[in-house]
Amino acid sequence: CIFPVFLFSFYRKSLSRSSVRSRMSLKPPKAYNSLQKGALIWDPKPLQVKKIFEALKKGLNEYLEAHQAELDYLSGRHKDTKRNSRLPPSLSLSPLQKQIRSVERYIRKLEFHISKVEELYEAYCIQCRLRDGATNMKHAFSLSPSTKASRESLVELYKNFQECTEDMCFIEGALEVHLGEFHVKMKGLVGFARLCPGDQYEVFVRLGRQKWRLKGKIETDDSQTWDEEEKIFIPNLHEKFEIKVTELRGLATILVGVVTCDTINFFTTKPQAIIVDITELGTIKLQLEVLW
């Protein structure tokens, strides 16, 4: 049992050096107080976090490239203006220079945002590998003859596994702070012959604990009126959009359909259209627009 104990000792030192709280000054905001040490822990989802991280980083880089292109264009205009101007340089900034400064500040913020996201995900991967190592070592110890040393090692490994799990959940909460906002716009129902003047519908959109309930009516000219047109949702790592449509007939309600929609494709600079089949045959579709 000497060799496994040596591995365990090495693992403990690695864990101590790589502890997320010793390496990073992460302070969860009020919205994530439940993620503090000693709080209730759920099961982290490394594969889902990886998908969101890759989509988030791609979207942030798209914004960075777009603003860098804008900066290059403004800088070129400024050079042309200076070259063609016969007036002495002014001590005050011109509107074009102020615009350039504003874009430069925004680019620096984006670069910091990207570096922070990468730092969080790197720490998350470290804790994930340590957690997997603890799991493998627990399995190896459980196959060896039971001794006092092996039982003590199993207890310590369980504690380390719990610490890594807690740190991963903590980082997930910190990463969610950097996901931005989804601005969801109601574009209407599409139903061809299924939608008739006078019909009333209720659309219920949920993302985790966030809810949006709106009612609409089909007018005589086939246009639609809705009591709300836009809602802001805060994305998270594990929840999908849940959409339910019901038809209102007097005091009765008839369920038209329920669908779910993943959020991964919405981390991009361009507005994304959501067109989902509410009924199984696709006779009624719901159209939304999501801007990140």
UniProtKB/TrEMBL annotation:
Sorted alphabetically, which InterPro entries does this protein's record hold? Answer: FAM65_N, RIPOR3
The record, for Pfam families, names: PL48
Name the source's superkingdom.
Eukaryota
The residues forming a coiled coil are none
Q: Which residues form the FAM65 N-terminal domain?
A: 12-292
Family label: Belongs to the RIPOR family.
Extract the PANTHER family matched here.
PROTEIN KINASE PKN/PRK1, EFFECTOR, RIPOR FAMILY MEMBER 3
Q: What is this protein called?
A: RIPR3 protein
What is the species of this protein? Answer: Neopipo cinnamomea
Gene designation per UniProt: Ripor3
